[in-house]
Design goal:
heterodimer, A: 260 residues, alpha/beta, Rossmann fold, 6-stranded mixed beta sheet, 3-stranded antiparallel beta sheet, 8 helices, 9 strands, 25% strand, B: mainly alpha, MetI-like fold, binds adenosine-5'-triphosphate, binds magnesium ion
């Protein structure tokens, strides 16, 4: 099994008025090709920071974190679904989704065809010609997901991609993500606050400690695939989420006390 | 329940009393004030009370109107009130309450505007808008030079060309400089404080220097340049602010999706900065008009500012007001033009 994401003792410090703030401390992670790994941890533990570093948008202070490139040099290495959506207000929904392809010089007809296909999958085909200011936050988040998927990167880095959605839309898109992953077997690093979502989607769930973020523990999700929402009502699912919550509870409490 | 409450709430406003009483009050107020000669020392109180009565009358009328007439009524109100002010001015001025020498009645101002528009001033060789109805005749008699001469005699064209040429000459390099300042930290630290210092300097203050610099101190050079300079600093600084104000995560998204330097500029930085850039352009256009009118006051033989000042000097107040009106129309027109451009360039902002 080839390794696709490798992080060794990844440490990130930000300068601040009160000296250096450590966002990430000695974080180790390897993700195999085609693996779906979920990252769960208290707010502020450095999950987004780690994704930005992997994406090459920020530098590490100490250590190593990289994505191993594949054989096809034309294929984009990674794309991020940003926690803040980061859709371009000046582009229509369709142009936003086609953005990566446009940057790579794909012709208009082809990139629009691809973008429309992905818009249909996230249920936004009707809104193709809208501007982001005309759609809701949850819809923007779906545009952001479609934009990353349409670019077909080797690795998907998703930062709470379903965070702004209502429970129903969230459930539908979770199933959609499961289906897409069955089709593509893409390497995914997926940040979420929901233990249920992590267990439903992931092959592995990595827990992080609060401030500074390090790896706390790791759970292998050996629920059979293909999965769907029915998986969440199995006793195995309940046992696993219970165990993870048991492990995380103290960490969350510590994080809250530290902030108080 | 709510229907009943609405009905009882409305009964009070059923009769014409709701709007008639304040109007009657207004007439009484004006009559009493005029009869007793209270205007001279109490004009401010009379105007204030009159305004309140007009508001009460309008609200009373609005409450009596069916819902579907509400919007048309409000639109009419927006037009009717200024007309009412003009009518009041007319009346106060003709009845002698306002001194017509300083505040000529609007009808005379309109007359003066008509005068200025249709007549050619032999003495100065100018007209307000260049008598465009003569263009066909001139074209057959004298060809293009005749048409150019018509343009050259126009005060509006003189002001307009100075504003537009100066604005473009100032704004275009400002966009480039502001962009570079926004993108490059070194350039920014080098230029920012200097430019902010020059920005607060009233540009009219450097007009004398410009007159010395140009070979023809009374020509168009210094005038256009002073407009260009006033526009330049405003546009450059706001372009810089616009570029810097772009949400960092959008820049990250751009580079994450593979935009190269040029694509980044074209697809992320430029559109991201546009809203604030247009703020700057709008301010710069307004400033350009202010500056050119001020310059024309003192150093021009043509232009709308010259017209205002000239008629002030000869105490031709109706024509002075008419010229001021033209300045307003120019300001509104140029701003509307810029807004049109804005809407075309930024369709995502509705
Ligand atoms: N650009 C920055 N400058 C200074 N400090 C930063 C910066 N970005 C993040 N931090 C700090 O690093 C820490 C981790 O932030 P990060 O956004 O990665 O957390 P997170 O795990 O994604 O949290 P959440 O779940 O709330 O999104 C925080 O304490 C934050 O204040
Ligand atoms: Mg985050």
């Amino acid at each position: 099994m080839t390794q696709k994401i490798v992080a060794l003792q990844a440490t990130k410090r930000y300068p601040s008025k009160a000296g250096m703030v450590t966002a990430l401390e000695g974080f180790d992670l390897t993700v195999a090709e085609g693996e779906f790994v979920c990252l769960v941890g208290p707010s502020g533990c450095g999950k987004s920071t780690f994704l930005r570093i992997l994406a090459g948008l920020e530098d590490l202070t100490v250590g190593e974190a990289r994505i191993v490139p594949g054989d096809d040099p034309r294929r984009p290495l990674n794309n991020v679904v940003f926690q803040e959506y980061a859709v371009f207000p000046w582009k229509t929904v369709l142009d936003n989704v086609a953005f990566g392809l446009q940057m790579r010089g794909v012709g208009k007809a082809e990139r629009y065809a691809v973008a429309e296909r992905w818009l249909t999958k996230v249920g936004l085909k009707r809104f193709a010609d809208y501007y982001p200011s005309q759609i809701s936050g949850g819809m923007k988040q779906r545009v952001s997901i479609a934009r990353a998927l349409a670019n077909d990167p080797e690795v998907l880095l998703m930062d709470e991609p379903l965070g702004a959605l209502d429970a129903q839309t969230r459930a539908v898109l979770q199933e959609e993500l499961l289906r897409i992953w069955e089709e593509t077997h893409k390497t995914v690093l997926y940040v979420t606050h929901s233990i249920e979502e992590a267990v439903l989607l992931g092959d592995r769930v990595v827990l992080m400690t609060a401030h500074p973020g390090t790896k706390k523990s790791e759970f292998v999700v050996d629920l059979p695939r293909p999965r769907d929402l029915a998986t969440t009502s199995t006793p195995e699912f309940a046992a696993l989420t219970g165990a993870i919550w048991e492990d995380l509870r103290d960490e969350v409490r510590r994080a809250m006390e530290a902030q108080a | 329940m709510s229907a009943g409450a609405a009905a009882t709430g409305r009964t009070g406003a059923r009769g014409p009393g709701a709007w008639l009483t304040p109007l009657v009050g207004l007439v009484v107020l004006l009559a009493v004030a005029s009869l007793l000669g209270l205007w001279r020392s109490w004009w401010w109180a009379i105007l204030g009370a009159g305004f309140v009565l007009v508001v009460l009358a309008a609200e009373g009328a609005s409450r009596r109107l069916p819902f579907r007439f509400q919007t048309p009524f409000e639109r009419a109100l927006a037009w009717l009130f200024p007309l009412l002010v003009l009518a009041a001015w007319e009346w106060l001025s003709t009845s002698g309450v306002l001194n017509p020498r300083w505040f000529p009645p609007p009808s005379r101002i309109v007359g003066a505007l008509w005068d200025l528009t249709v007549n050619y001033d032999r003495f100065s060789g100018t007209s307000l808008i260049g008598r465009p109805w003569l263009i066909p005749a001139r074209l057959t008699e004298q060809g293009w030079p005749g048409v150019v001469a018509l343009f050259n005699e126009s005060h509006v064209w003189a002001t307009l060309s100075r504003v537009i040429v100066g604005f473009v000459l100032g704004a275009v390099p400002a966009l480039l400089v502001g962009m570079v300042m926004g993108l490059n930290r070194t350039v920014r630290t080098m230029l920012d404080s200097t430019m902010s210092a020059i920005y607060v300097l009233p540009k009219i203050a450097i007009f004398p220097i410009l007159m010395l610099v140009f070979p023809d101190p009374f020509g168009e050079g210094p005038k256009v340049t002073v407009v260009a300079i006033s526009a330049f600093f405003l546009v450059a600084l706001s372009t810089m602010a616009g570029v810097q104000g772009i949400d960092k995560v959008l820049l990250q998204a751009g580079s994450n999706f593979g935009a190269n330097r040029w694509q980044m500029l074209r697809h992320v930085i430029l559109p991201g900065a546009l809203p604030i850039v247009f703020n700057g352009l709008r301010l710069a256009l307004g400033t350009a008009l202010i500056v050119i009118v001020a310059v024309e006051f003192v150093r021009a033989k043509t232009g709308v500012g010259y017209l205002v000042y000239y008629h002030w000097q000869v105490l031709g107040t109706p024509k002075m007001y008419a010229a001021l009106l033209v300045v307003m129309v120019l300001g509104v027109g140029l701003t509307a033009l810029l807004q049109l451009v804005e809407r075309l360039v930024m369709p995502w902002r509705r």
